[in-house]
């Protein structure tokens, strides 16, 4: 066997007949499989033990030699080698064909490879191969031409006329003769000459032919190997036959297909031996050809061969293709042992790094560890005894299990795994029952809830796997979301509500204005009922020594509530005392307005102070982010656990609940509705008099009702008591929002019809009053549409993620700095006047490409190639700077990846990215995972000025697939000034004239399009004239790549951010860069590239470098924008492309070219079973020897305090 990890690359090519014979262990001569009585394989049949190896370990067929003692002996009676039965998975056989046949992939694929090589049409080839026409292989001195087709009748006439002066042949033999006679080099020279003069169709066909001929010339493949003389037979264990209950057999379809080929081949041999009539032999040859076609790719030509129940049989091609094929089912995803699954329930008492594992499940998962430990502790005498104890669940087992699982993390996974946080590591805690307990804060990352969700558990076995799980995957480590760098473990629901209730303030509560000398005294006063949780009291600041107050503040009273004192106790020391949900309070200090001097009339001052808003969900998220920034992971996860406990405790104490009494009737509602009805009547009257069109009437009616609903919503907001339970739930961000409340207490409003357009009859009732029958029915459309939308969206979003992962899976951080001199000019992304993404969000965590100076003082804020931190980012924005040139993935020069400087900070850790990080996969997951939150609909703006604008998920797909967008905008091809805009009423268009620097251009635009330019505006090439989406390929043609990249980035950000989803720019940059990797060569100069071929940008630069070094002319090319599907299939790795889509086409092409896969990406390495070249699998991390560096005393560090830990270790060494 090959040593699995001992090769750098893998090559594919055409197999010559001799090669196929050299693989084989013997010829299969009979179609039989196994003997029906003895159930042993038939000799020389498809399962023959002599060819493929013994069916039982170390036992020959006749039973003469048994046991491993005889290993390697070939039995003299039955001829079977005594060896392991697993050789039946690797040994191949072969079948010698009585007549050659063509390989259907090379003849039928698009384009037909055989057709291109021979310069014949696929139809002509089909006639020859399937015995309909003869082909002239050598014309001799006759007037016939080579490759001329002759019908049976013409062939007989010419034979009669010219005798043996010419050679003609039929079937695969004829094609083989033509292929053998082909002089590839001469053809190539001829085609190169033709290219000098040819144009149009002729030229493009010549280029395609030249491409294929070059491929055969450069690889060691011979064209005649596309014709098969001998067929390989795959090992029997890969096409098994198993006995079912009741004595019947289930067999792989391949056995049926092989059997048909062998039967027909044997019959043909017999007919040839008998000198059967010519026509019978030809028919048999055609049937053999069809049988081989069905074996290789059933259904590719003609009707598929079917098995019982008219089911098409699965051929060799089907074994590779699709989700159930070899690549995706068995190589990219495998079933693993040491895993289990169960329903999840909430584990509110767990720590951030723990999960509850059912005892029985844990025992089964950790069985080998427990057994070893039982033997080592001498509780069991041997492994067998230990196994028995475990299976019987002996009393002695449980203590051992407790010790075994201590500090042995397990992985928890919830399907669908949309991003890397869908698999995290936790330390197991044994629990009774059969359900896995999950920490409530881990739910958001998994998108899990406890309504019956299931999760899978996996056990990392080796020490390395355990170390990786603990260091990289522990639940307590994954605080930030890789897509935007914001905390993913924010409290939700009850936890939010409890903390909101805890930090509320109220007027005139029991004991308002009381003074306390210490925190404990204030809490005691609350516990004894002297003050309320929400009472505003004054506490001496001196009793809070750990908080960063100013010297002035330390001599004063702090006005706060008992609830806030309790809330602040969970915060780390040195973190500012939180008295209000403001950024200043979070980052710097408690504002001075909450401090009172000694001797002040405290109750009076407090009663005049305005109430402060409590801390809602967003504020808690900001607090977590700030704590993470200041104190790193360990402290944050401890604080999160404390926040969770506090939330649960006080949401229970608050007793907040929902009853019908919480929904009060709105007095203004009848008045608002009356006014709306009056307006609608007026609009309808205007329409009846013919003053407005139907479309305008509809749009106005819709507008009136929307306005009425908004008015009711506003009235509700003002009338709502801040202590209303439902208000508190929605205001805190725990559950629900104002529009839910509007539907409960106001009106439901307008509904959409099944067609997607809005019905003009609104639902004026609300849920408290109850709906009429008609209203009930109208609202069901929306509900039904919602359900179907969600189902479709999930599939669409998953497929988008799959394509994104595929195109970017080989993008890995490969080096420190690529040394590029280019960058990206970052400004705030705006649509109209609305800021979609502010400048600060775009530059934080990126390296500056050029030094940034203060525009007034000229002092340096950030140096070139220095990372822009939050503080520096704020300084830049405060200085009024509107654009910064940053290092960007767009302009990175690293091949097969990105460098650290161009990527910047890793959003998941908040620190600089490490070499080896698989940033392509992270980018794909970050863009794909929120896909399900985007809308599916293309909105109908309805009425007058509107064409449908695509939004949400369809828009994201449109951008990444580089399709012609719906509602396309016209762009200008010249830079200049808008000279004139005139309307042509009869043609219903507007004509925009642009006076450029060199020439003047006019563009016709539909009359109802919304214009983006006016007369006198100055515009640049590629700017849109009207509203709509720009076609990216058009933009690339008229403008430069820089403008296209910025446009694509802006559009993706708009699609996501308009739906409230934030994604880091760098993820989109990684994707867009992958779409712009190829160039199309226009003039090859003195390089070896063919004109019109698509080639990788790096390879193009290399070829040009070679040409220039040898004093030749470089090639010229244009950048090509590929959609992600196309880009995935154009990758250098044939394994990655074949496992993505169009498997047969990719493999056909790769085999002809003799392609080599250098195993650079992740998928290729997973497929062949090597470690992936990312993360700890990178070369730089392997072969690290552990060494002792002294003992660290007292302090225990988390992995994120590495630098401190290293300093501490150095101190020890010095001691």
UniProtKB/TrEMBL annotation:
Binds 1 Mg(2+) ion per subunit. One of its GO terms (cellular component) is DNA-directed RNA polymerase complex. Zn(2+) 2 binds at residues 818, 892, 899, 902. Residues 224-503 form the RNA polymerase N-terminal domain. Zn(2+) 1 binds at residues 60, 62, 75, 78. Pfam families: RNA_pol_Rpb1_1, RNA_pol_Rpb1_2, RNA_pol_Rpb1_3, RNA_pol_Rpb1_4, RNA_pol_Rpb1_5. Keywords: DNA-directed RNA polymerase, Magnesium, Metal-binding, Nucleotidyltransferase, Transcription, Transferase, Zinc. Its EC number is 2.7.7.6. It catalyses: RNA(n) + a ribonucleoside 5'-triphosphate = RNA(n+1) + diphosphate. Belongs to the RNA polymerase beta' chain family. The RNAP catalytic core consists of 2 alpha, 1 beta, 1 beta' and 1 omega subunit. When a sigma factor is associated with the core the holoenzyme is formed, which can initiate transcription. This is DNA-directed RNA polymerase subunit beta'. It comes from Dolosigranulum savutiense. The gene is rpoC.
């Amino acid at each position: 066997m090959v040593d699995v990890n001992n090769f750098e690359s893998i090559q594919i090519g055409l197999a010559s007949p001799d090669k196929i014979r050299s693989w084989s262990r013997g010829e299969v001569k009979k179609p039989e499989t196994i003997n029906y009585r003895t159930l042993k394989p038939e000799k020389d049949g498809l399962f023959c033990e002599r060819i493929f190896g013994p069916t039982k370990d170390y036992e020959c067929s006749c039973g003469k030699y048994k046991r491993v003692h005889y290993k390697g002996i070939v039995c003299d009676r039955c001829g079977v080698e005594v060896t392991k039965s697993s050789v039946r998975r690797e040994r191949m056989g072969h079948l010698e064909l009585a007549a050659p046949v063509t390989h259907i992939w090379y003849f039928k694929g698009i384009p037909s490879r055989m057709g291109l090589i021979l310069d014949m049409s696929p139809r002509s080839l089909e006639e020859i191969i399937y015995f309909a026409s003869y082909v002239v292989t050598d014309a001799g001195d006759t007037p016939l031409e080579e490759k001329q087709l002759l019908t049976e009748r013409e062939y007989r006439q010419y034979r009669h006329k010219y005798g043996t002066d010419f050679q003609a042949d039929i079937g695969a033999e004829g094609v083989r003769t033509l292929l053998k006679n082909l002089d590839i080099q001469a053809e190539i020279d001829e085609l190169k000459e033709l290219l000098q003069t040819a144009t149009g169709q002729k030229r493009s066909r010549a280029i395609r032919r030249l491409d294929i001929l070059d491929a055969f010339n450069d690889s060691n493949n011979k064209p005649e190997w596309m014709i098969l003389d001998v067929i390989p037979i795959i090992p029997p264990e890969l096409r098994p036959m198993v006995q079912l209950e009741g004595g019947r057999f289930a067999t792989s379809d391949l056995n049926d297909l092989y059997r048909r080929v062998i039967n027909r081949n044997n019959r043909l041999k017999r007919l040839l031996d008998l000198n059967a009539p010519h026509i019978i032999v030809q028919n048999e040859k055609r049937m053999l050809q069809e049988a081989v076609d069905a074996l290789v790719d059933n259904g590719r030509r003609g009707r598929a061969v079917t098995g019982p129940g008219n089911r098409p049989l699965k051929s060799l091609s089907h074994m590779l293709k699709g989700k159930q094929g070899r690549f995706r089912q068995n190589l990219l995803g495998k079933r693993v042992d040491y895993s289990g699954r169960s329903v999840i329930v909430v584990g509110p008492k767990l720590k951030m790094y723990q999960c509850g594992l059912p005892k029985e499940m844990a025992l089964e998962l950790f069985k080998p560890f427990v057994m070893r430990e039982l033997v080592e502790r001498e509780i069991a005498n041997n492994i067998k005894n230990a196994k028995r104890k475990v299976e019987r669940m002996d009393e002695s087992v449980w203590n051992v299990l407790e010790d075994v699982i201590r500090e042995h993390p397990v992985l928890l996974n919830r399907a669908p795994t949309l991003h890397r946080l869908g698999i995290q590591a936790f330390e197991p805690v044994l629990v009774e029952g059969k359900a896995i307990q999950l920490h409530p804060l881990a739910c958001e990352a998994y998108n899990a809830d406890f309504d019956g969700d299931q999760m899978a558990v996996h056990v990392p076995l080796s020490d390395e796997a355990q170390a990786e799980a603990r260091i990289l995957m522990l639940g307590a480590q994954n605080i930030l979301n890789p897509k935007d760098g914001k905390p993913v473990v924010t409290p939700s629901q009850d936890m939010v509500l409890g903390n909101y209730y805890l930090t509320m303030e109220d007027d005139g509560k029991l004991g308002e204005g009381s003074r306390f000398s210490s925190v404990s005294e204030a809490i005691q006063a609350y516990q004894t009922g002297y003050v309320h949780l929400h009472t505003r009291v004054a506490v001496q600041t001196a009793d809070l020594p750990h908080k960063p107050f100013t010297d002035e503040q330390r001599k004063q009273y702090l006005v706060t509530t008992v609830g806030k004192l309790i809330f602040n106790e969970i915060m780390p020391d040195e973190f500012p005392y939180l008295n209000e949900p403001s950024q200043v309070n979070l980052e710097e200090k408690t504002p001075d307005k909450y401090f009172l001097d000694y001797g002040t009339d405290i109750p009076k001052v407090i009663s005049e102070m305005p109430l402060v808003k409590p801390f809602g969900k967003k504020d808690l998220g900001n607090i977590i982010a700030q704590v993470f920034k200041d104190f790193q992971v360990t402290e944050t996860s401890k604080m999160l656990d404390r926040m969770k406990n506090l939330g649960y405790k006080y949401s229970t104490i608050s007793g907040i609940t929902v009853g019908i009494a919480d929904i009060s009737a709105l007095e203004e509602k009848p008045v608002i509705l009356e006014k709306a009805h009056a307006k609608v009547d007026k609009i309808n009257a205007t329409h009846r008099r013919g003053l407005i069109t139907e479309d305008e009437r509809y749009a106005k009616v819709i507008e009136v009702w929307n306005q009425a609903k908004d008015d009711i919503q506003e009235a509700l907001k003002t009338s709502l008591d801040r202590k209303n339970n439902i208000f508190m739930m929605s205001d805190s961000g725990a559950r629900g929002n104002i529009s839910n409340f509007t539907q409960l207490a106001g009106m439901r409003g307008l509904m959409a019809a099944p067609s997607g357009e809005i019905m003009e009859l609104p639902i004026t009732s609300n849920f408290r009053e109850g709906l009429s029958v008609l209203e009930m029915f109208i609202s069901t459309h929306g509900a039904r549409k919602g359900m179907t939308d969600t189902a479709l969206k999930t599939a669409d979003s998953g497929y988008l993620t799959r394509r994104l992962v595929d195109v970017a899976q080989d993008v890995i951080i490969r080096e420190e700095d690529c040394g590029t001199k280019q960058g990206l000019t970052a400004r705030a992304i705006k649509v109209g006047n609305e800021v979609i993404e502010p400048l600060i969000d775009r530059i934080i965590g990126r390296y500056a490409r050029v030094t940034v100076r203060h525009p007034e003082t000229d002092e340096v804020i950030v140096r070139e190639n220095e990372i822009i931190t939050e503080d520096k980012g704020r300084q830049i924005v405060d200085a009024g700077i509107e654009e910064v040139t940053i290092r960007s993935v767009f302009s990175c020069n690293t091949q097969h990846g990105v460098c650290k400087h161009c990527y910047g900070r890793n959003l998941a850790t908040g620190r600089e990215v490490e070499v080896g990080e698989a940033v392509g996969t992270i980018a794909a997951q970050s863009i794909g995972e929120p896909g399900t939150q985007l809308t599916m609909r293309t909105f109908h703006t309805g009425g007058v000025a509107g064409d449908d604008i695509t939004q949400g998920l369809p828009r994201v797909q449109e951008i990444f697939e580089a399709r012609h967008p719906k509602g396309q905008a016209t762009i200008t091809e010249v830079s200049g000034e808008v000279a004139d805009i005139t309307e042509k009423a009869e043609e219903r268009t507007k004509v925009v004239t642009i006076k450029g620097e060199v020439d003047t251009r006019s563009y016709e635009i539909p009359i109802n399009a919304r214009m983006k330019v006016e007369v006198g505006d100055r515009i640049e090439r590629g700017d849109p004239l009207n509203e709509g989406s720009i076609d990216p390929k058009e933009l690339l043609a008229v403008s430069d790549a820089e403008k296209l990249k910025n446009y694509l980035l802006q559009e993706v950000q708009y699609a996501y951010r308009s739906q409230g989803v934030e994604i880091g720019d760098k993820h989109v940059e990684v994707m867009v860069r992958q779409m712009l990797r190829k160039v199309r060569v226009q003039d090859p100069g003195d390089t070896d590239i063919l004109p019109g071929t698509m080639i990788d940008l790096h390879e193009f630069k290399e070829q040009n470098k070679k040409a220039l070094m040898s004093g030749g002319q470089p090639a010229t090319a244009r950048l090509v924008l590929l959609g992600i599907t196309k880009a995935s299939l154009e990758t250098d790795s044939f394994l990655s492309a074949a496992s993505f889509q169009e498997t047969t086409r990719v493999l056909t092409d790769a085999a002809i070219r003799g392609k080599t896969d250098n195993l650079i990406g992740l998928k290729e390495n997973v497929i062949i079973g090597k470690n992936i070249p990312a993360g700890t699998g990178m070369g730089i991390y392997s072969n690290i020897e552990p060494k002792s560096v002294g003992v660290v005393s007292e302090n225990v560090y988390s992995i994120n305090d590495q630098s401190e830990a290293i300093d501490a270790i150095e101190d020890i060494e010095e001691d």
